[in-house]
Structure formats: structure tokens, C-alpha cells
TrEMBL record:
Name under which the protein is recorded: Uncharacterized protein
Source organism superkingdom: Bacteria
Region of interest (Disordered), residue spans: 1-22
Alphabetical keyword list: Membrane, Transmembrane, Transmembrane helix
Regions that span the bilayer: 71-91, 140-163
UniProt source species: Amycolatopsis taiwanensis
High-level lineage: Bacteria, Bacillati, Actinomycetota, Actinomycetes, Pseudonocardiales
Amino acid sequence: MGNIDSEAAPDENSQAQELAPASPATLTQYQVLAARRQSFDTTMWQVPALSLTAQSFLLSLAYGAQSSKPASIVGGLLSFMISLMSVQLLLRLRKNEVLDSILLQRIEREHGWTELFTSGAARARSIGYSRRRVIHLRSYLIWAAGLAAFGLAGVTAVIIAIVTG
């Protein structure tokens, strides 16, 4: 595993001594959990990008000047549904990523290892870094709100299509 701090990584001998108390099963479990946590994190950020691609197509259909009333309604409803599904998936992936981070942190504490899977605030404090206010905003919540806004745009398209029909 790479060192997340700006310091040089410890040499192999000191790393082997640090990890010596853990059993092979614990090391394997730690590696599997770390890989799964990384997978949740990576997928969590792919969801908004893919969703926005679908949303842009559906909203162009829903709001297009050449779109028929049924096409606007279907595009708007699909946009709303994709928005809900994307927000739910984003939040579920975030929850799973956090749970795995907590499990990894417990293993690190139990074995006296350097805590790599602690919170961003704790990592910043450990190196004397002052976090700015903007960092306190949770990115996944901002993205969830943005995806929800696209869902509202879809509902608005449906309402406009029905009212102006």
C-alpha cells in the first residue's frame, strides 16, 4: 500500500516489523476490505457522471422544441426516475465505503498500525494542516443535491407538457 503522507515510505524491514503481530488471515482480510472500500469509492463517483450523461439526453428530449407532448412527458419522467435511482445508489455506495473505512480503522488500531483509513479532518490535524470551511461541505451531499435538482427539472418538464399540452 502506498504512503498517503508526503514523507517517504518506510523501508520493507520496518514495515514488516510493524505488521508482524497480525496473522496472515488478518492481513488478507485487511487487503480485501481495502480493495472493496476503494471499489465503493471509485464507483460512487462514476454514478454522478453517468447519470448526468443520461439526464442531459432526457432533458433535451423533455424540453426540446420539436418534442411531442408524450416524448416530453416520458423524457421528464425518466429523468426523474434516473435522478432518484442515482441519488439512492450514490448514498448507498457512500455508506458502504464509510463502513469499510471504519472496519479498516479498527484493524489498524487493534494492531497499532498507522491509521490510513481515518477521517479527512483527523488526517489533516495529524499533519498540522488547517482545513478551510469549504472542505467541511460533503462532496457526496452536494452531488446528491445536484442529481436531485435534475430530477426536479424532469418533473417540471412533465408539468409544463401537461399544462401547455
